[in-house]
Amino acid sequence: MTQRILFVCLGNICRSPSAEAVTRALAAAAGRDLTLDSAGTSGWHIGDPPHPPMVAAARAAGYDLSPLRARQVGAADFTAFDLIVAMDRDNLAALHASAPEAATARLALMTDFAETAATDVPDPYYTQDFAGVLRLIETCAEGLLAQLDQTQTTQTAPR
Ligand code: 4NP
Questions:
Q1: Worst-scoring range by mean pLDDT, 1-5, 12-16, 117-121?
Q2: Cβ burial, residue 151 (10 Å; 0-12/13-18/19+)
Q3: What does the alpha-carbon distance between residue 156 and residue 154 come to, in Å, rounded to a whole number?
Q4: I need a labelling partner for 144 at 20 to 30 A (CA). Which of 8, 13, 17, 117 fits?
Q5: Selection from 77, 112, 100 nearest residue 5 by Cα
Q6: Residue with CA closest to ligand 1 atom 6
Q7: Residue 135, SS3?
Q8: How many Cβ atoms from other residues are within 10 Å of residue 121's Cβ?
Q9: Does position 145 have pLDDT exceeding 70, yes or no?
């Protein structure tokens, strides 16, 4: 079954579009079929393209963010996706607070998927470390794909 994964940050113009694009590229390279999207807990940048310095850092690392446009998380996302991955603890708290009763999606933190001392993916809108955040996102996305592989192996193992 196709896994549906939504990446969430505050503005949906730096971290979560990067997570979406990086995971899409890694999944394509691995021949894995995933439905991926990203959104913001805020509606501050609805309709905007990703932040230009984030687009530039991603392009330098081989990822194209330019087709993406920001949107806000909505109630329907909690059933439309299997997994919603928050970039930091504030995003995760906002997701828990806005989850409808009918929510079925599993909520997780991006750093749950990597062996890293970091708990949050720091916000480069404030730190200005766009390349550093991209590297952390790559590490987490690799861990996420590895975990999906394990899940699939478990699910498809002969009984
Ligand atoms: P993001 O970064 O959550 O990684 O997209 C931000 C982008 C914009 C703002 C804050 C964080 N802002 O305050 O407009």
A1: 1-5
A2: exposed
A3: 6
A4: 13
A5: 77
A6: 11
A7: helix
A8: 28
A9: yes
Alpha carbon nearest to ligand 1 atom 9, residue: 11
Q: Is the pLDDT of residue 83 over 80?
A: yes
Rounded to a whole number, what is the distance in angstroms from the first to the last CA of the chain? Answer: 19
Copy the structure tokens of residue 91.
Answer: 């995003």
Is the CB of residue 68 less than 8 Å from the CB of residue 38? yes
| Tokens representing residue 30 in the block | 């691995």
The pLDDT of residue 146: 95
Query: For residue 20, what pLDDT is reported?
Result: 98
Rounded to whole angstroms, what are the CA distances from 115 to 19, 52, 85? 17, 29, 16
pLDDT band at 2 (very low <50, low <70, confident <90, very high): confident
Q: So which residues are the catalytic ones? A: 9, 15, 123
Amino acid at 41: T
Report d(CA 87, CA 74) in Å as an integer.
17
Q: How much is the average pLDDT of 8-12?
A: 98
Q: Under DSSP, is residue 109 helix (H, G, I), strand (E, B) or coil?
A: strand
Q: How far is the CA of 54 from the centre of ligand 1 (A)?
A: 11
pLDDT exceeds 80 at position 84:
yes
For residues 20 and 35, give the distance between their C-alpha atoms in angstroms, rounded to a whole number: 10
Q: Report the alpha-carbon distance of residue 76 to residue 142 in Å, rounded.
A: 27
